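Section 5: illustrative case.
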């Protein structure tokens, strides 16, 4: 992502991140990434990095691009192209680190969490989210 955005990888050290009480796993607002404090308790920091990857995509969009990202509450969450892009990065990371089965399992969990039941809609969304795998 750093290379694609024309920045040195060391920018990661400068991205403001904190833990907070959220109703979601993570959020980026005005270039500040907040991770749900519950992630500190799940015992799987290495998989939790995938949330940071997702949010760093939003950070780069918010801070380095000319157009703002659409908010998570702006329309259907899983149809939001900015969210899809973040999830694609997150799923790509999971695939790279843990394999395609783990990436696909995460996508299935995500679709279940967002109550996507229609088979055709589910397959379409899964194809989009797994695009980089």
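Designed sequence:
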């Amino acid at each position: 992502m750093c290379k694609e955005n024309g920045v040195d990888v060391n920018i990661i050290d400068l991205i403001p991140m904190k833990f907070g009480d959220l109703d979601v796993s993570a959020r980026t607002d005005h270039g500040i990434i907040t991770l749900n404090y519950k992630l500190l308790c799940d015992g799987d920091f290495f998989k939790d990095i995938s949330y940071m990857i997702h949010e760093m995509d939003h950070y780069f969009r918010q801070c380095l691009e000319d157009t703002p990202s659409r908010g998570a509450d702006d329309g259907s969450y899983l149809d939001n192209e900015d969210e899809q892009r973040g999830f694609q990065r997150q799923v790509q990371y999971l695939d790279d680190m843990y394999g395609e089965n783990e990436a696909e399992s995460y996508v299935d969990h995500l679709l279940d969490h967002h109550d996507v039941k229609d088979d055709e809609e589910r397959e379409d969304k899964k194809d989009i989210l797994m695009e980089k795998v």
